[in-house]
Design a protein that fits this description.
6 helices, about 170 residues, alpha+beta
Length: about 170
């Protein structure tokens, strides 16, 4: 069952990698993070993408949150998280290339465990991508979902940075 407004986020872990080898530039030292601990007392915007480096995700979804990060935070969000079913090294590299550092936390859900816990997993095996998450965005205040927008295939509206900004201003 998909998480809904008014529900508390499930327990789980995501992984973030913020260090890069000075010689090779490769991400290193990924850190597992407890979602419950990370969200305590904070208003977090979490958006999920089907995959790092995929066309819509790279051209519009992540760039929109990077571009509007300051406005989103000024409207009340303490942090912005991008979640994808990719490994932490891929998420770190993608975030660096998209200028997300310091604006958006690049959270890896490498085995889709958290996407499953949210009820936002989808099987894209037929397209060669395995299990991924739906494109979505949510506003979570102290662990409780205040807004969630889940997109269908080919849709991009309910999870855009601009939509989240409007929701935060309500």
């Amino acid at each position: 069952m998909t998480i809904e407004v008014g529900q508390t986020l499930p327990a789980g872990k995501l992984t973030e990698c913020n260090e890069f080898d000075p010689e090779t530039g490769c991400p290193m030292n990924p850190q597992p993070l407890d979602v419950g601990e990370m969200i305590k007392g904070k208003k977090i915007v979490i958006f999920g993408v089907p995959g790092a480096y995929t066309p819509l995700c790279s051209a519009q979804h992540l760039p929109g949150f990077v571009e509007h990060a300051d406005e989103i935070k000024a409207a009340g969000a303490d942090e912005i998280w991008c979640m994808a079913v990719n490994d932490a090294f891929v998420m770190a590299s993608w975030g660096r290339e998209q200028a997300a550092t310091g604006k958006v936390h690049m959270m890896a859900d490498g085995s889709a465990e958290y996407a499953r816990a949210l009820g936002l997993d989808r099987d894209l095996t037929a397209g060669g991508m395995g299990v991924r998450c739906y494109r979505f965005a949510m506003i979570v205040d102290d662990g409780v979902v205040e807004y969630i927008g889940v997109e269908g295939s080919g849709e991009f509206g309910k999870s855009k940075a601009e939509t989240i900004l409007e929701e935060l201003k309500k």
